[in-house]
Amino acid sequence: MSSNTGFNSQNGPGGQPYANGPLQNPAVLQPPGPGYNMSHQPPYNPMQAKGPMPPGTGLYNSGPYQPIPPVSSYQAPPGQPMLNRPPMGPPQSTSPCPGPRMPPAHATPPPVSANSYYQHPPAWQYGALPPMGAPPPIGAPPPMATPPLAFVGNHVTSSPSPAPPQATSAGYSAAPSPVFNNAMQSPGPSLPPTSLHRYTHEGSDPPPKNPMAPHTYQPGMAAPYGHPPAGPPPSMRPTPPPMGNATPPLPFGPETDAGHIPTPGNGAQVPNRFDHLETGPKMAGPLPPQQPGPPARHMGLSYPSLPPGYQNTSASPMHHPMHAPTQPYSHAPQSYQQPSAGPSQLSPSLAGLSLQSQTPEALRVVNLLQERNLLPPGPFTPPTPCLPKDLQKINCHPEVFRSTLTSIPQTQSLLNKAKLPLGLLLHPFKDLSQLPVVTSSTIVRCRSCRTYINPFVTFLDQRRWKCNLCYRVNDVPEEFMYNPVSRSYGEPHKRPEVQNATIEFIAPSEYMLRPPQPAVYLFVLDVSHNAVETGYLDVVCQSLLENINALPGDSRTKIGFITFDSTIHFYNLQEGLAQPQMLIVSDIEDIFLPTPDSLLVNLNECKELVQDLLKSLPQMFGKTMETQSALGPALQAAFKLLSATGGRVSVFQTQLPNLGVGALKSREDPNQRASAKDIQNLSPATDFYKKLALDCSGQQVAVDLFLLSTQYCDLASLACISRYSAGSVYYYPSYQQQHNPAGVECFQKDLKRYLTRKIGLEAVMRIRCTKGLSIHTFHGNFFVRSTDLLSLPNVNPDAGFAVQMSIEENLVDMQSVSFQAALLYTSSKGERRIRVHTMCLPVVNSLSDIFAGADVQAITGLLASMAVDRSVTASLSDARDAMTNASIDSLTSYRTSVLTIQQPGLLAPACLRLFPLYILALLKQKAFRTGTSTRLDDRVFAMCQLKYQPLAYVMLMIHPALYRVDDLTDEGALNISERAIPQPRVQQLSVEKLSREGAFLMDAGSVIYLWIGRNCNPNFLTQVLGVPNYAAVPQNMNILPELDTAESQRTRAFVGWLREQRPFFPILHVIRDESPLKASFMQNMIEDRTESALSYYEFLLHVQQQVSK
Ligand SMILES: [Zn+2]
């Protein structure tokens, strides 16, 4: 029954080693500073040679997996009872925890368990001199003289002694004023009595006599973090915070995320401030309300060439479930009710029997060979976890935090049976317009596992809360008793921290050893002949000039520039100079900084010099004949320049680097592009870029790569510089200023977003989950510092992440589990902030329940990331097989274990009905396709995007949305800012859906095609395109003219709305039959057969054959 290749969903204990390396990470035990052993680089290492892969390995299986205790595993400290895991559901009338006791007021702090991250030495330390700041070689000549004239190249051949690294030049602005700003809206209706927050009163456990006691700062705990504060206990009433620095500073590194942020305890309570975080420039806006789509139209559909059994049926059964709720959580489909009596009461057979009567929509049986019209008419709505209504309402938004299975299997063996991958998809730093921000002297966290208090904890009474991850009972700090929203006392469960699944804390600055790092921007620009030919330098300089005041930052922001061809050019921008000075270093073998103090300057103080430079740069190299590119040395220089402060490097490269370290050779054979054989050279040619990226990561430097090239550049090697330093990769494959105006516009728009979007510096992200679950393989751009801690020198609002999970211990007796992602970062304003997302999911013990909660898009997104890894570590064909088998195995499991009444056909539960289609789409995606000519860099870039883009954009890359747009109406339109946004129905990706009389718009994520039929409605041609007839449609049309017609306004509103929803700028191509781009458009017709790939129907037959074996 199960297929031979790749169908093993053993992603837990007992399986094979993870393709990405073992979970156990020796690097955890040693500081991964510069010089740490690369071979210890663990989970995220597609380059690493895979362990022997037994035949029949699956996509998510992997080798001798040695389970390590989950981080959240709690060891009861001496003298404290080990808490059993009680049920998580609605509280019973008595405490589920037998006799939870208040911890003794001065108890010994919980010992640090062996797997705790607290005891690990910090990976790096603020203020520590970076290794690159080491003295120069002996015999270095004295510092070179500054040239008298600007832009006169000074060829310096050896190293002066670098000045000590500048820490922060400008003063650090103190903590935000603790003004209480009640801007935060009421967090919602007060909890119904059935809420988890209901107090459970136990007769045997009187409330603490001394309410201050639990709050008392524990000297023992303070040891690693600083001195215990002194002073009287906090008063009940909020008073202004201490102005002086009464509390000794504490080290504030990434470890602080894991560390204890103590209560000052000096009697001064800081009133809480709530305000809304500033929104990003473009993506601002509330999480888009999921609007109901237009009423589904019956799509008459002909399938002439298909066998008789394969007939189009009415879409009617699909209508109601796919209509998104108007509010994210308000009235999510409740058709599927989890039995509250306990999971053990529901057996698969019972669920199967119920199919005939009260089948939840998610489990409605769909015969894929018969039902053709499976796409939801509007935007896809992820399934809503089956939780009590009040928790459902409060749960984390699926755009931010999402699970492949919204019902978590009770055991790993049950998960293995389902053959569905278990993992999380995150978009942790997404721009949000509604983000509660809390300034509080006490950030309430579990004393055992450091989980932040969240909506899914249980209050045992007013003074104690039980952690939902490790089940430890914690004290409610005194300050928490005051609710700044209601301005009342004694309602800790109404605090914003327990009313919002997404929240941000401002860490009190008194607890910092040194100020958070300033925003530091370094631009590294290719100025070779090739680069100048593209004309990109104009755009970069112009864009920077226009947005220089919008760069996120404060009075400490620094900026610097490096240009390079065969030599490296630095720019002295120090205040007081008449003009910028260019310093050329030609010794690229041993790169050094000519005047280390003046190359990175304060943006505010030196803005005029910076502007002068930006105005001159494009002309300075206008006549260059230098063709060589020393990218590697330029990156080394950038690293040296930023290693003292950390910051962001933006690299612009236009060709294959061919000089100095990191030089690359072409590895692409154009004749092999369409080869059906396996694709070679998906892994890097050198480890130079990865090693340098890890050095950068250790110094809080991230590198973003902009690749603008018509030639092969070996992106597989170059992208490592961004992948491991938590940067981003941008790729403009045919960038040319004169010949590709649409590409220029796209680059301009992307740059504007890039320069002005929010940035988080020196960040770490930790993902915690309820005891029993364990997180392994991570996907995205970062360095894995320890088992669950990602190092993110920069975090940007457009980055997505995915993780795979396994179930280490049976989740028996649990009704729900929780996941918490905590992102600790320094804002561009110098605040240390912690953004916390918490998601709660029910635990189930039947296969049918697991299937009912499957989120097909999240599953597809996770599989795509896993397949990228597989392509690199094994082979593309292996990855393709594994993806195909993923759909076969899950449908086989469904057929054999969930369905009780066998029927002919290829059967899927309604919630997975799109699974085979999405898998086929992945097989035809640029990243994984075979048989179609695909440039290697294009393929590698698609793989990069699949790994680090948020799911919404990944899905458009995989399965574009097709709309008919020549007959747009306002019926069912969205109304946004008094603009009506038409909502045409999503069409199947088949040529059969096209009509010569129509115009069709295909949204493929980073590109939008507008296909014009040969006999297109003349009204559309004149009123929207402004041309008299079909023949007059220009060959290279990339904009819609602004015509004063209703049709034009509607069409532009629709395209504009699609574009506004993503952080990058999708280019628009208007195409007709003769257009060269028609082929690209047609390649996205996933349901159709091509010379090298199956049609959707053929693919279904193949799957059916395997399932029925
Ligand atoms: Zn805990």
Automatic annotation (TrEMBL):
Record keyword Isomerase present: no
A GO term from the CC aspect: endoplasmic reticulum membrane
Gene Ontology MF terms in the entry: SNARE binding; zinc ion binding
Membrane-related topology note: Peripheral membrane protein
Protein name: Protein transport protein Sec24A
Keyword Zinc: yes
Region annotation Disordered: where it falls in the sequence: 1-116, 137-351
Matches recorded under InterPro entries: ADF-H/Gelsolin-like_dom_sf, Beta-sandwich_Sec23_24, Gelsolin-like_dom, Gelsolin-like_dom_sf, Sec23/24_helical_dom, Sec23/24_helical_dom_sf, Sec23/24_trunk_dom, SEC23_SEC24_subfamily
All copies of domain Sec23/Sec24 helical, residue ranges: 855-955
Domain Gelsolin-like: 982-1054
Keywords assigned by UniProt, alphabetized: Cytoplasm, Cytoplasmic vesicle, Endoplasmic reticulum, ER-Golgi transport, Membrane, Metal-binding, Protein transport, Transport, Zinc
Residue ranges occupied by any Sec23/Sec24 beta-sandwich domain in the UniProt entry: 760-844
Domain of life: Eukaryota
Any Pfam family: Sec23_helical
Primary location recorded for the protein, binned into one broad class: cytoplasm
Family designation: Belongs to the SEC23/SEC24 family. SEC24 subfamily.
TM helices/strands, residue ranges: none
Chain ranges of the Zinc finger Sec23/Sec24-type domain: 443-479
Gene3D superfamilies: beta-sandwich domain of Sec23/24, Sec23/Sec24 helical domain, Severin, von Willebrand factor, type A domain, Zn-finger domain of Sec23/24
Positions of the Sec23/Sec24 trunk domain: 516-755
Comp. bias regions, Pro residues: 97-112, 137-146, 226-252, 286-295
Residue ranges with Polar residues bias: 1-11, 179-188, 327-351
Record's subcellular location: Cytoplasm, Cytosol; Cytoplasmic vesicle, COPII-coated vesicle membrane; Endoplasmic reticulum membrane
GO biological process entries: COPII-coated vesicle cargo loading; intracellular protein transport
